[in-house]
């Protein structure tokens, strides 16, 4: 019997077939182009790090989810995000980098999460961070990059939600809840999902907070309206806390500056409930939701931190950054039918009638490629119907047909697949007529 | 005392700083563009596979070098190349792919080799393969893709060496050395390095071959001259072996077709000594050397195989492919001083004189970006000398200067960093003069 090994991927992992990988590559290119347009530079770090570098930075949950193993005598693990490697990188290369340092990194990360619909154990993150500056200009820029990213990817209807941890922390201190802040913020984060009453109940159950303290914090749930209205309603709540007032002033500054370059309420909203789980955020925080598919969660999140590399270096490295969840966004675009159905990267297929004419076909393909038209030559002189079936299935725009007679007559037939129309063109002058005709239509 | 964790990468692994990562990303983009111009489509596969999928395909050495570990109850390993995952992928998705299937994959692979100069345990491979056809058209196309890749990357002086395993196998059979073929070919591979005598000695020592048999095989070492001359000298050697003659005819066909599209002896040479270690090659084989740095080894290698996925599927999947050693090529370009010294992705830095004018700077940057000019705004209103130092260090082309007075007068000073020249331009009409001036110089 057969000794075949069953071909399969690991649980929680997946292959990308061309129909998904073509748009996935385009997404990465779009992200790179947006990051570069702001002067962010690329870096790369190893997939594997010493476990002691990675452990204890992302919290207990990420520690448990790490793919960690012994390599000889070394305790190693696969990175679970791109922030911890950046912290190690910044501490290690410090003075060689120069500050401010604006970097992006687009790379896979691995987390042994329980697999569930739309959640995988390997996914690509697209991070960008500005380190070495506390300037609010970088907070504003981070928001602009998120806005440009979403637009460049093709979204119009999306909401960047902005908050400031100083507002939250100031209000908690004012209410005497600083020590319970992690639990209080965790409950507050659920406000849009479970509502005011359930959040209050959770706060009362999980912390020592009194009903009065909880009511004080939950005044936040009552603010509403335009960004200007929300900011105005926050003023009295923040009064009496220097920290909260500072956070509010920063929020105002970011909102105003972004409006000055055209990012208004329709795509940017102050949302005082977002806290972001990770406790290293200290100032501005961002989340981004798709208006047509909010249930998929935030597709681009981040915020300001005071000290990136405290575990590895005495030098304080403040900064701000965010991460585009590329694979989550791709899944959303698939659900929203935003992905083109194509399985080819070339526009034109040259049919092969006779292998005696292969050199002619190769020359034809070369002339087209030199004009920037991606072109494939069908490798075998199979039946023409079969070659057309291949062209249809892949999604080429046109098939070029040149049998012996056409080649002698210096002619090429161009079949345009969208409408089945056929046009005869001259192949003289190194296929000038063919390339011009195609270039005008592609 | 300090409890800092020493920031460091694992032995054999490395970070890519921007000055290396910027050209590395360009190399990947170039490879993608060339692959796409021929209609190859991208795929992606997981970094981790079940060990039984990976084991035993690449030979004992690669098995030993795998990063392999238990994940819960699963025996898993990190991929050591992109060919085995392609085989698994092709067997798993078979009928969904459609044949012929032309794919590329650009991704890191991991091998626990002993670290040595220029050799790392993580490196990026750029593979392209055409599967599901035995047509010689694909052998020719593979050579053309290699040629276009090398040209697009910026090389003029390179040598694609071509051979055909059928010629070698036919000659070995004719000499009665089929059974010793692995050892004989391993010795033959060293011909350019150690010379005829040493190769003969090794063959005699490691195999049962007689002096006469070795002499017969080593007639191969005497062929020389142009491709046409080499092919003619091979005719009498191949006579009497159908297999060798078939291989010779294929060599002739590939050489002729590539010459017809301009790839001639200066970049393509028949080299009967190359055998390529891996024994799954069965026809055309390619290696590629840099004329100015041959010692770095082949930077793009591959060949034809009869059956890619025999371990996982009964369906025979013949094909041909090659792999560009991206990180090896990058190291070579660094040695050959072919890499630009730049640490920025933006061309223009807008200096920040006063944070009161931040909105103006943001609007200026937006206008430039909308004209396709990547632009960074310095985040802090630091001393202008410090901002210029930053611009010099990163390698910007120009710094835009607009203090309060300039902004009132609707003027911008452009400092061109290459020659230090300064030009005053109007900022009216949404910076039209500035963007036009810059666009004409960048």
Account of the protein in words:
Two copies of one chain form a homodimer. Chain A has 442 residues and is α+β, with helices and mostly antiparallel strands. Among the domains of chain A are: 8-157 and 291-341, Bira Bifunctional Protein, Domain 2 (BirA Bifunctional Protein, domain 2); 348-441, Anticodon-binding domain (Rossmann fold, 3-Layer(aba) Sandwich). Helices cover 43% and strands 20% of the residues of chain A. Chain A has 16 helices and 16 strands. In chain A, the strands form three sheets. In chain A, strands 1-5-6-11-10-9-7-8 form an eight-stranded mixed β-sheet. The first copy, chain A, starts with 17 loop residues before the first helix and ends with a helix. The model of chain A has no long low-confidence stretch (mean pLDDT 93). Chains A and B meet through helix 1, strand 1, strand 2, strand 3 and strand 4 of A and helix 1, strand 1, strand 2, strand 3 and strand 4 of B.
Show the helix and strand layout.
Two copies of one chain form a homodimer.
Chain A: H1 18-37, E1 41-42, E2 48-50, H2 51-54, H3 60-65, E3 68-71, E4 74-78, H4 83-97, E5 101-110, E6 122-131, H5 136-153, E7 158-164, H6 165-174, H7 181-188, H8 191-206, H9 211-218, H10 227-238, H11 242-260, E8 268-270, E9 281-290, E10 300-305, E11 319-325, H12 326-335, E12 348-350, H13 358-370, E13 375-377, H14 384-394, E14 398-401, H15 404-408, E15 411-416, E16 422-426, H16 428-441
Parallel strand pairs in A: 1-5, 7-8, 12-13, 12-14
Antiparallel strand pairs in A: 2-4, 3-4, 5-6, 6-11, 7-9, 9-10, 10-11, 14-15, 15-16
